[in-house]
């Protein structure tokens, strides 16, 4: 009987520990990071592949996804497949992607763009890396992080993963 109670205590403690770890992992990757939905997104002025890009303006699009990433971040790179899919489908309807890299190495950044096939994104780089002023303004603690912004500058969604962006754009930009 004593062994049974002891085993049950270990099981309960183990499950509690697992749940606590799961909760702490979720709080680390929580989707609630970043500026709040319905707030106005800060403007971003950074160099692109060809210098400063005058097209880095959220009013040029019906919806613009501001995506914070880095060439060294595997999750960011995997997410690019889903972003390309969304851009290919919705670009003609006014959707664009502003990809803000927090790389400090320009060569690695450019290689990642070429390898991932993301040259259709508006590619910007912030050499300050994870100390970026824009990460602070957008209240981003870790990458990848993204914000879907409408043409008034209002954040309508954030931290869309995998096909969530595609599904949302199906409702926001239905075929005409």
Write the layout of secondary structure elements.
Blueprint: H1 2-28, E1 47-48, E2 51-52, E3 63-69, H2 74-90, E4 95-101, H3 106-116, E5 122-125, H4 133-137, E6 145-150, E7 155-158, H5 164-172
Parallel strand pairs: 3-4, 4-5
Antiparallel strand pairs: 1-2, 3-6, 6-7
Helix pairs in contact: 2-5
The total number of structural domains is 2
Residue share in β-strands: 15-25%
Net shape: globular
Distance between the termini: 70 Å
Please tell me about this protein's structure.
Strand 6 and strand 7 form a beta hairpin. The protein is built from five helices and seven strands. The protein is 39% helix and 18% strand. The protein is α/β, with parallel strands linked by helices. A five-stranded mixed sheet has the order 5-4-3-6-7, with helices on one face. It has a two-stranded antiparallel sheet with strand order 1-2. It has two domains: 1-30; 32-172, Glutaredoxin (3-Layer(aba) Sandwich), CATH 3.40.30. The relative contact order is 0.20. It has helices at residues 2-28, 74-90, 106-116, 133-137, 164-172; strands spanning 47-48, 51-52, 63-69, 95-101, 122-125, 145-150, 155-158. It starts with a helix and ends with a helix. Helix 2 (74-90) packs parallel to helix 5 (164-172).
Task: Note the main attributes of this structure.
alpha/beta; Glutaredoxin; five-stranded mixed sheet; two-stranded antiparallel sheet; 18% strand
Summarize the structure.
The protein is of the alpha/beta class and 176 residues long. The protein has 5 helices and 7 strands, in the order αβββαβαβαββα.
